[in-house]
Amino acid sequence: MADKLETYRRKRRFDETPEPSGARSAGKAAGERAEPALSYLIQEHHARHLHYDFRLELDGTLKSWAIPKGPCLDPAVKRLAVHVEDHPLEYGTFEGEIPQGNYGAGTVIVWDRGTWEPDGGVAQARKAYEAGKLKFTLHGRKLKGGWALVRSRMRGSGDKEQWLLIKERDDEARPEANYDVLEQRPGSALENDAASRGRAAKGAKRSKPAMPAKPAPPPEAGEPRADRPDIVATRTSQSLRELAASPSIEGAAKARLPQTLKPQLATLVDEVPRAGEWSYEVKFDGYRVLARIDHGEPDQPVRIFTRSGLDWTEKFKRQADAFGALDLDTAWVDGEAVVLDERGVPSFQSLQNAFDANRPQDIVVFAFDLPYLNGYDLRNVPLVQRRALLRAVLEGAADGTLRFSADFALDPHSLLDSACEMALEGIVGKRIDSPYVSTRSGAWIKLRCRRRQEFVIGGYSEPSGSRTGFGALLLGV
Questions:
Q1: What is the CATH number of the domain that holds 314?
Q2: Any idea which residues carry the catalytic annotation?
Q3: Beta strands in 249-401 (DSSP E)
Q4: Both 185 and 261 in a single domain?
Q5: Which pairs count as long-range contacts for 351-356, CB under 8 Å and 24+ apart, including other chains?
Q6: What DSSP designation does 346 have?
Q7: Mean pLDDT of the chain
Q8: Residue range 58-74: average pLDDT?
Q9: Contact in structure between 114 and 185 (CB atoms under 8 Å)
């Protein structure tokens, strides 16, 4: 046990902080506890940057993750969870003020607490935790139902493991747009403690606390903070300029922005792959476009190209202006230009009509990849990180002309069925650890609701025999 809490104790001065030292937990194995249920809690931590600490009891300590944005009940939303050091079991009831000058200085309340039930029991939980794919049921005061913690291939500052906290689809799931559990259920879960209620009232409004009189020391790696270029949590303009250079962006390389870029293409398949970790997006029925942004070229800072490399900037003036308004220096952005019909479904015929009628304002670009950003080549960065960066970039898009192509945490068979019911073209699957390659790749796949191909009539032959009009057509793809 002493080894498990060594990092926790080394970071703290217990003669100054009210946090428990964990001395009472030393030597106490999980099987020696009187109560059979495993404890779970989330602590709301108003440090230099508000975040939520998610903790699960396993083998005598609290396995812990720092979640910058806190939990979400929407299965489509994957919350970044930075794995941090084990905490002692006594930390499960800790609320109070960590003094300035100490690690994690700020106010802590227990936002939720209860028990957790690992899928397959404790023995399976140990294996799942080591494998990086932990599924469980929460029985908390605020959070309930099925959840999953999944380790990604990303590494944070200080080589911290970055996991994802995901809500399972069950009766407890709620769309993020309709219900924010952090806003709706504020305050301390230790409701029988009057002092806790007072601290909960202080922290009930999820606002940034006042700056301390003297600067606190820099937080350890893994603790969310406003001035670290975190791949998901940070959104400031300065951070976007430095984002690609962050130590957490493994695989990024400094590079000049190329003049041209060939897109990655998906391979048509008939079956959902069984191996690997995949994300799935809607397959849009539109024109593939790639936007080149370079504010070092004042005469034409944005150019928009088709899949085959044709410069269609004049046809996409409104979209070019929207790309130019993003707070970027340089970038290549990959996406699909569509026109949505009255049902919100992409219509290829409506897109062609928009070009014929010179109505670029009807066209929306759904962006799904970011091969280059601010002087860095991101093509060897895993897809999940490129898309996290892209989501951050597109938060500056104002009028809906540019949108992020969301991926869905659904079973791909169910997602394909839903897409077909909505008369969509199909879905696209992508390996979350895959690089960006300018060719057709098995790391990107497409599953179609219908098989359709456009052909060009290049000529015809004269009729013969009993035929009239023409004999045969010469078709090109």
A1: 3.30.470.30
A2: 283
A3: 253-254, 265-268, 278-283, 287-294, 302-306, 330-338, 364-373, 376-377
A4: no
A5: 351/285, 351/286, 351/287, 355/315
A6: B
A7: 82
A8: 93
A9: no
**Spatial CB neighbours of 138, under 8 Å, sequence gap ≥ 6:** 40, 114, 115, 116, 144, 145, 147
Rounded CA gap, 289 and 309, in Å?
9
Whole-number pLDDT of residue 143? 96
* Residue 380 shares a structural domain with residue 266: yes
Rounded to whole angstroms, the Cα distance separating 248 from 227 reads 14
Residue 442 to residue 428: CA distance in whole angstroms: 11
Max avg pLDDT among 104-113, 194-203, 351-360: 104-113
Instruction: Return d(Cα 275, Cα 142) in angstroms, integer.
Output: 35
Assess whether 313 and 221 both reside in one domain. no
Give the three-state DSSP class for 350. helix
Dihedral over alpha carbons 455, 459, 465, 468 (to 10 degrees):
80
Tell me the pLDDT tens digit for each residue of 374-403: 999 999 999 999 999 999 889 867 678 999
Residue 379 amino acid letter = R
Q: How far is CA 53 from CA 109, 329, 438, in A?
A: 10, 35, 40
Domain that holds residue 13: 6-227
Report the range of poorest mean pLDDT among 67-81, 120-134, 417-431. 417-431
**Are both 289 and 410 inside the same structural domain?**
yes
Give the H or E element holding residue 55.
strand 50-58
Is 309 part of any domain?
A: yes
Would residue 413 count as lying in a domain? yes
How many residues would you count in the chain?
477
**Whether residue 358 is found in the same domain as residue 223:** no
Query: Cα–Cα distance between 211 and 200 in angstroms, integer?
Result: 19
Q: What is the pLDDT of residue 214?
A: 32
Are the CB atoms for 81 and 157 separated by under 8 Å? no
Predicted model pTM: 0.49
- 59 dihedral zone (left: phi>0; alpha: psi -120 to 50; beta): left
414 shares a domain with 270? yes
Number of domains in the chain: 2
Residue 241 included in any domain: no
Q: Are residues 307 and 399 in the same domain?
A: yes
The two three-digit tokens of residue 385, written as one number: 């990180």
Task: Map tokens 């936007």 to a residue.
Answer: 291
Largest pairwise CA distance in the chain = 103
More reliable by pLDDT, 327 or 61: 61
What is the number of alpha carbons within 13 Å of residue 124 lying toward its C-beta?
Answer: 9
Are 222 and 261 members of one domain?
Answer: no
In terms of phi and psi (left: phi > 0; alpha: psi -120 to 50; beta: otherwise), the region of 131 is alpha
Cβ contacts of 372 within 8 Å, gap of 6 or more? 255, 257, 258, 261, 330, 331, 332, 378, 379
Amino acid 361: pLDDT: 80
- The Cα–Cα gap between 36 and 121 comes to 12
Tokens of 475: 């078709």
